[in-house]
Amino acid sequence: MKENLELFLDLYELTMAEVYFRYKPDTLATFELFVRELPKSRNWLLVAGLSDILDFVMNLKFEDKAIDYLKERKIFSQDFLNYLKNFRFRGDIWALPEGEICFANEPILQVEANIIEAQILESFLLNTINLQTSIASKASRVVIVAKEKTLYDFSLRRTQGKDAGLKVSRCAYIAGFSGTSNVLAGLTYGIPIVGTMAHSFVMSFKTELESFFAYSSCFPYKTILLVDTYNTLNGIQNAIKVAKELKRKGFNLVGIRLDSGDIVYWAKRARFMLDKAGLNFVKILASGNLDEYKIADILKEDPPIDSFGVGTHMGTSSDSPYLDVIYKLTQVGYDKKRLLPTMKLSEGKLTYPGRKQIFRVVDKSGFYVKDILALEKERLKGRPLLIKVVDKGRLLYNSPSLEKIKEYAKENLSYLPSIYKDIHSKVEYPLIISKALGDLTKKISKRLTKESQR
């Protein structure tokens, strides 16, 4: 069944669009998507979602089924529905690449187009950036804390639906995870897939040992045994028996998984027992409601854990499940000839006018020092972050491979100073407003205040 993604929007996008169609069909506008405030538990964001956005924008059209549905609602005029039949995005888009680090009040996307076209994109853009940047940011915190440990995405059963399940796997991989349990994500994105066994599998056999031998006989080259269904000590001993039998047949037991109890104690006990049995090659995987905080606490005790399976808390970004992401008008062509800067004056929700650029200033070693938010035409010290990805409806940007995006994210995270990467840090990264942008903000604010009093 086709999803009709052209209707993946809030109704008011279409009702506003019809008004524009009737009263100002040729008006140009610039919209800016950004996060107003970072969640209290975040010092940075790792951008993700651009690939899906570009695919959506380039293929956006209103199919007959969608037009028929809208017609049946008896909300819209036939003229507007005819307009939608021929709808295509013909504007410009600037964006931060996936894997880029950003902060509050920095544009992640800027859309400049006919106001109808720009408005119709809003819901999809916000939804996509909200989910994917939330998850990539959460996953990057786990990666930083885990350091050299291997990480796997085990979140599928707890994510909110099929789409989220897929996007979480992709975003976790971008952030630095090594694989996922989600088989469809493996097919869709080429991410390595991993898996062990469930407690129910062990319980379905008469004995734990019998379940271990059955599994290892089917997958002698890739067996990881879950050892804590009944008694963890006995589970480790049974895993050792299976490992010796596999070794006799020319195979190596890949690992054991600890999913409950005192993970540090049992990891140390298991490592001692495995090594004593001549099985130093067997890896230890830990799982069980893990997040960056729990992993940090575990690693303080230097346990011999080789990898972590991270699920619910990462896959739902449980401590910060959404971003304060918004899509605001920054320029509009009131006279149909040129775009004039505008801004929102609402208390606590002020926005900056005009189309912008972010300049990232670094020190001699490449570490981030500060960002400068400036007007697009300014030429300031620092690396400009926003790139033009769509020009007059034509795609300019070829999304890199997932591996390239992952490398780019790793490099960016490596240059973020450690003071901001500490998961308990409250230090705010400096964002400087350029003098020209500051002056324009005061000018436009004064003008709009005066006009609103008429």
Keywords:
454 residues; alpha/beta; nicotinate phosphoribosyltransferase; TIM Barrel; 2 domains; seven-stranded antiparallel sheet
CATH superfamily of the largest domain: nicotinate phosphoribosyltransferase
Report the span from N to C terminus: 53 Å
The CATH architecture term of the largest domain is Alpha-Beta Barrel
Q: What order do the strands of the largest sheet run in, or round the barrel if closed?
A: 13-12-1-5-3-17-18
Q: Percent helix among the residues?
A: 40-55%
Overall outline? elongated
- Tally of extended strands? 19
- Gyration radius (Cα, Å) is 26 Å
Instruction: Report on the biggest sheet.
Output: 7 strands, antiparallel
Number of separate structural domains: 2
Give the integer mean of the pLDDT values: 96
**Beta-strand content:** 15-25%
Low-confidence stretches: none
Characterize the structure shown.
With 454 residues, the chain is α/β, with parallel strands linked by helices. It is built from 17 helices and 19 strands. The protein folds into two domains: 5-135 and 323-452, nicotinate phosphoribosyltransferase (Alpha-Beta Barrel); 143-315, TIM Barrel (Alpha-Beta Barrel). The protein is 41% helix and 18% strand. The strands form four sheets. It has a seven-stranded antiparallel β-sheet. The protein has a six-stranded parallel β-sheet with strand order 7-6-11-10-9-8. The model has no long low-confidence stretch (mean pLDDT 96).
